[in-house]
Amino acid sequence: MNLDSFIGGFVVVKANYVKKTDTLGEAINNFPEIAPVLAQAGLHCIGCHVSGYESIEQGCLSHGMSTKDVTALINQANARISEFEKMPIVTFTVSAAKELNKRLGNKKFVKITQVFGGEFDFEATNEKEKGDVLVPVTFEKKRITVLAGKKIERMLHGIGIDYDSKQKDFVAKRG
After folding, report:
1. Residue 37 shares a structural domain with residue 96
2. Where are the beta strands (DSSP E) in the chain?
3. Sheet harboring 133-139: ordered strands across?
4. Domain stops at, among 85, 114, 134
5. Residue 2: inside a domain, yes or no?
6. 87 has pLDDT over 70
7. Which has the closest alpha carbon to 8: 83, 94, 121?
8. How far is CA 52 from the centre of its chain?
9. Within a 10 A sphere around the Cβ of 43, how many other Cβ atoms?
10. How many CB atoms lie within 10 A of CB 154?
């Protein structure tokens, strides 16, 4: 899949990054892309019960890190967030856009939904929920609007979506 062939997508810039006083759970919930950064630093307790109330700093210190290490980790996490935010949210090939248009039918939007096992699917809807991110997709002088919930939006940064007519399914690739 050649990412140069993708259409649509845009970049969202947010000013709120993680701070050492944020809870681990809050940081991961808002910025799931930092999970590998935290894990590489030895914070494998991301899903631990204390992640809901323990700050990043408290977690680091309880794992034997210095305050200097905490600052370096926060800087690495924020660099990862910044890198993610420079990526387009999601892009679609023309064949994917055509398939989305078919699924749209007489509805206003196509919403990206998360299904069992962490995979994604697309459903036509007339409803936009509070916090949904709009992704305009234009092809062949047509425009459709794809919706993504706030949590899903974070996971879609840098993802290109194509449609494989042989498999009759969408194919996603980061890159």
Report:
1. no
2. 90-92, 109-114, 120-125, 133-139, 142-148, 159-164, 169-174
3. 120-125, 109-114, 142-148, 133-139
4. 85
5. no
6. yes
7. 94
8. 21
9. 21
10. 21
- Residue 53 lies in domain: 24-85
d(CA 36, CA 93): 29
pLDDT tens digits, one per residue of 93-105: 999 999 999 989 9
Same domain, 79 and 95: no
Token pair of 67, please?
């305050």
> Which of 141, 84, 95, 92 minimizes the C-alpha distance to 112?
92
CA 172 from centre of chain: 13
Instruction: Verify that 76 and 138 share a domain, yes or no.
Output: no
Cβ contact 146:154 at 8 Å:
no
- From 92, 86, 85, 88, select the one nearest 145 (Cα to Cα): 92
The whole-model pTM stands at 0.67
Tell me the pLDDT tens digit for each residue of 13-35. 344 589 999 998 888 888 888 98
On whether both 48 and 100 belong to a single domain, the answer is no
Q: Examine the domain organization and report whether 104 and 49 are in the same domain.
A: no
CATH number at residue 47: 1.10.3910
